[in-house]
């Protein structure tokens, strides 16, 4: 067996409408469809990339082993990342960090249930020649 690609992510959410608004209206993730208790999103790469299932309740604190974050590519230039930073600030979305990963530049935010999301731009494709570049220590992100 061999994994060909990451197919999709499924999140349990406390409030479906609030999460749909966040992923569709704030992040611009295309909504494929909704039915009671669930919503699917896709950017066209596969049948769906994100599925939200409403379970209600309060978010659990993220304190132990388990899920850390998902990464969503938003472009290939710092200009696109800067525009996303401005959009998050405009929408009062908490930005929890930034990172220069040598091949990507990233901003980290949280969704309405506290799930961390990395919004990143590929700044080069050097990793195709040297896959070990992704293991280099993260640097502070400096945007001009």
TrEMBL record:
<keyword id="KW-0223">Dioxygenase</keyword>
<dbReference type="InterPro" id="IPR004360">
    <property type="entry name" value="Glyas_Fos-R_dOase_dom"/>
</dbReference>
<keyword id="KW-0058">Aromatic hydrocarbons catabolism</keyword>
<dbReference type="InterPro" id="IPR000486">
    <property type="entry name" value="Xdiol_ring_cleave_dOase_1/2"/>
</dbReference>
<dbReference type="InterPro" id="IPR018146">
    <property type="entry name" value="Glyoxalase_1_CS"/>
</dbReference>
<dbReference type="GO" id="GO:0004462">
    <property type="term" value="F:lactoylglutathione lyase activity"/>
</dbReference>
<keyword id="KW-0479">Metal-binding</keyword>
<dbReference type="Pfam" id="PF00903">
    <property type="entry name" value="Glyoxalase"/>
</dbReference>
<dbReference type="InterPro" id="IPR037523">
    <property type="entry name" value="VOC_core"/>
</dbReference>
<dbReference type="GO" id="GO:0008198">
    <property type="term" value="F:ferrous iron binding"/>
</dbReference>
<dbReference type="InterPro" id="IPR029068">
    <property type="entry name" value="Glyas_Bleomycin-R_OHBP_Dase"/>
</dbReference>
<protein>
    <submittedName>
        <fullName>VOC family protein</fullName>
    </submittedName>
</protein>
<keyword id="KW-0560">Oxidoreductase</keyword>
<comment type="similarity">
    <text>Belongs to the extradiol ring-cleavage dioxygenase family.</text>
</comment>
<feature type="domain" description="VOC">
    <location>
        <begin position="5"/>
        <end position="122"/>
    </location>
</feature>
<keyword id="KW-0408">Iron</keyword>
<dbReference type="GO" id="GO:0051213">
    <property type="term" value="F:dioxygenase activity"/>
</dbReference>
């Amino acid at each position: 067996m061999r994994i060909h690609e990451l197919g999709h992510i499924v999140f349990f959410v406390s409030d479906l409408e609030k999460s749909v608004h966040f992923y569709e209206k704030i992040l611009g993730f295309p909504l494929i469809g909704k039915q009671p208790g669930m919503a699917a999103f896709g950017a066209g790469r596969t049948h769906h990339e994100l599925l939200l299932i409403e379970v209600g309740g309060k978010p659990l604190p993220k304190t132990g082993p388990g899920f850390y974050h998902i990464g969503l590519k938003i472009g290939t230039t710092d200009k696109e990342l800067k525009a996303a930073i401005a959009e998050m600030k405009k929408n009062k979305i908490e930005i929890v960090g930034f990172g220069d990963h040598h091949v990507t530049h990233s901003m980290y935010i949280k969704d309405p249930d506290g799930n961390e999301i990395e919004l990143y731009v590929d700044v080069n494709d050097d990793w195709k020649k040297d896959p070990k570049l992704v293991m280099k220590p993260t640097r502070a992100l400096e945007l001009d």
